Each structure stands twice: as C-alpha cells, then as structure tokens.
C-alpha cells in the first residue's frame, strides 16, 4: 500500500487525500455557495473524517470560498493545512473575464487579504495561480512570493498552471514546495511536472484527478476502468483516484465534492489495494497523451 501521509516543504505532514473546495461557490465558481449551512457542514464533516489538507484560492467566488472555510473551521485544528492561491482575477460571472495578474503590488495585496479572510497570520502554502501573467516577469512574481515568505506571511510557495521551464526558473530563485496541474488517467499533459516534482521533492496535486473521459478513445478508457473497478467492488472514479496514490509517491490529489457521502467515498479509495498489474494497465491507458 502507498504511504497514507505526505510531507509538504519538509515540515507539514498531511493525509494523501485532500479536499478541493472550489465547488463550494456559486455557478461557474462565481458568488456565494447557495447552501451556506450545507457548505459549512460539509467542511466540518471533511475535517471530522480525517481530511488534513484543504485547497482553495482567492478567485474562487472570488473570495467567498476562503470566507466560507473560515466560517466553518476557524479556529483551525493544529493538523489542518490550508493552501490558497493568488494571481487570477475575475471581472464577472463569465469565465471569459478570467485573467492573470502578476505585478508585485497585486500579489502582495492578494496574499495579505487571503490571510485576513482565512483568519491566519501565516498561510501554510501559497500558490502563484498562473504562469501566464504578462504584466510582470515570471521571475519577479516568484521573487515577490519569496519576499512574503521571508517576511513571515507565507510558510511555503507553490506553483499552479505553469510550464516545466517556469518550474525550473522558479526553483532557481526559491524552494518550491508544491505544484498543481491537470493530470488524470486520460490526460497526462502534466507528466513532465510530476516527474520534476519527484526529482525535486515537491508535492504534486493533480486537478480533475478522477476524470477518465478524455483522450482519443474515451469509451475504451471507460470500459477498462469499469472492468478493473468491478474486481475491487469500487466505482471507476474511486479506482482512478486510487491510481494516483500508486502512480507516484509525491502525489496529493484534491478531489472536490458538495456532498458528505461522496466525500466519504473519495476518502475510502485510500483503502483500495490496486495490484501492480492494474496500476500498470491504467498507467498505459493514455501514457504521454
């Protein structure tokens, strides 16, 4: 069985299955989550069920997701790590208004306001949310987060939506504790970042970790996943999630959900003991896609 915990930045030990809170917003990740009490109950259930890592961002809502987490969980348990991100902005309900901002003044403000909304003096893990911002050089953006770490506002720095070249450029400036990228059974575009994380000791958090409906032949993928899942009396989604834990020791999936039952189902994947043959079969499904 894979290890059931993972260490971020050398000093933050969390469970291998985190919770991605992005869905606890309005439609299209805009506005308040319509069932506020249900969202609070779900977050508390997650912590009670053993979740020790929660992923959010200032652009989720914007801001409403961080506020909801504070309302539900503050004061936080000592073993709970909350990661948030800065560098994206939304100009309205439509996704077309999403843009990346990287100038130092904006990033500094974003980090300070996230800390305020979350009710913490220091953010455990703070991600630069995108490497696509053009209003400041990428290296300057990373240096801004390094300065915030030196000032005590950030404990560890992460990168989201960056290229392999940007990851290496960032590491030349400051230690990088975590990376997030789109990566799952059928979409392996983040493979180079996963391998770079393994080599550097960074944690790799795949987003959309349970999907297997992409690639050239999604029906074949689904058939294989359903066949494997039947042998474990599990769902194909559970097997897809369990595969991440076997595929790499640095992986920290952050599946999201809005129901306690689904959250419990996700956490139960930690007990699925995939055979080496099944891990290899799943790995080969879309290798390099």
TrEMBL record:
Coiled coil spans: none
Pfam family, one: Aldo_ket_red
Record keywords: Oxidoreductase
Molecular functions (GO terms): oxidoreductase activity
An example Gene Ontology CC term for this record: cytoplasm
Domain NADP-dependent oxidoreductase: 16-285
InterPro entries: AKR (IPR020471), Aldo-Keto_reductase (IPR050791), NAD(P)_OxRdtase_dom_sf (IPR036812), NADP_OxRdtase_dom (IPR023210)
PANTHER family for this protein: AFLATOXIN B1 ALDEHYDE REDUCTASE (PTHR43625), ALDO-KETO REDUCTASE YAKC [NADP(+)] (PTHR43625:SF40)
Name of the protein this chain belongs to: Oxidoreductase
Organism: Sphaerisporangium melleum
